[in-house]
Amino acid sequence: MSLLQIALVTCESLGNYTDNADSEDDRLYHFLQEKGLKISFQVWDDEHVDWARFDAVILKSPWDYFDKITAFYQWLDKLEQLGCRVLNPVQTVRWNADKIYFKDMQAQGVKLVPTVWLDQNSSFDAEAVFDAFGQDKIIVKPRVSGGAKNTLAIGRSEAAAYTARINALLQEEPFLAQPFLEEVKTQGEWSFLFFNGTYSHTVLKTAKLGDFRVQHFFGGSVHTPEPPAHLLAAASRIVDQFASGCLYARVDGVELDGELALMELELIEPFLFLSTSEGALERYYQGLKQLLQKEEVAGN
Fold first, then answer.
1. Total-model pTM
2. Same domain for 161 and 66?
3. What is the DSSP secondary structure assignment for residue 223, as one 8-state letter?
4. The domain containing residue 22 runs over which residues?
């Protein structure tokens, strides 16, 4: 692998996403350099990058892709046309960018957090959504999103005050609604990390007091308990089903009624919590090496 040219894909500005977090990208970059890889950071929408010169293109932190989704899809098309070896695979990334993929997973038996789909240019019927869940608090967020962008927590009593705002957002893009899960506040949200389909480590994310967002850049905390075996088994089945050929996969979910309910399958640019588990960087590297060697054999 020492002769391979590898692009570690990022974005022009990581913004506040690095707040309260270690520099995971730099940590990974230096580790892979020490392994003898010729690796360099490349901004995904930099028009001057010659992607064809790389032996592998690894999506690491293109964290603004959801703000430029049309350009991002066009970039994926370009990589495909150039025949670039992309990790994760372009077809998988394209599928994973829009949370409508939940429907595919549900059709194949995956337990998901209940979801109501809000089509673009539709009108938000708050009462219908609350009644569908039988709850008095919901989460509304875009189908294509990240970093809790335009994610709203709404109580039934305040829905009228949010309706005009949501209707304006629906003119721009489709959204989805889900019940507000007290379990996220009381128990936390699990993230299970896999490299080339092999389990690596787990974190449990909890929101700061008074908030519902577990992301570290909103003040959430990260813990590293031993994951319950039944939850890990459920996450492993999801990866086996839907993350074939992926260098990395992060399964986010919450325990509901003793089962893992999927909140998101992260296959594009998840934070990998590499500093929370001894050996995680090595496991990432081994997963990368196995994938590249497998593809080299297939190419021959």
1. 0.91
2. no
3. E
4. 5-97+280-299
